[in-house]
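User: My collaborator sent over this chain with a note saying "see what the structure looks like." That's all I know about it. Can you take a look?
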Amino acid sequence: MIAIPERPPFAPEEYLEWEEKQPLKYEYIDGQVFAMTGGSIPHNDIAVNLTTALKNHLRGRGCKVSMADAKLGISEAGPFFYPDVMVTCDETDRRATKVLYHPRLIVEVISPKTEAVDRGRKFQNYRRISSLKEYVLIDTKRAIVECFRLNESGIWELYNYGEGDEIQLTSVDFSFPIDLLYEDVIFEETDTN
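Assistant: Without extra context I'll predict from the sequence alone. Here is the result:
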């Protein structure tokens, strides 16, 4: 994410109107806009693998699977984000054309540049969505998946998955081998300097 320097804060309505005219996508947090920079090929491959599997699994079940170009609003006043993958089964969202507000599953494919924001500020905001049941972080450097799942007591529990594991996404009643996410993925090199 790259912030636009020296710009007075946007009101949510201004942001929504302004962003529609921009050649890039921008996330919106506390009146500030942040350009969404391009991801890596492994990032894209992982998102496509998961989106394809979710779409096939949920076909005919009244849910909608969306990828990186679908805008998510925490509320009508923002913040607004572009998760890598999300699933909503809400009737209003299924008819939406600009912004989704009621996902039950949000997935971010993390890289060293995005990890801190995805774990911190984004997850803090995502937890405000009453329909959200699972938040998943997928690593691009090795086969590691972290699933934060809301339990019946309203506590977020962490489930870790690694090489050879079967991933459980209870929010959409879907289990699959972790290898499905990493099919045809060439892992990014880890910078050891």
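A starting point for your reply to your collaborator: Residues 53 and 180 are 8 Å apart (CA to CA).
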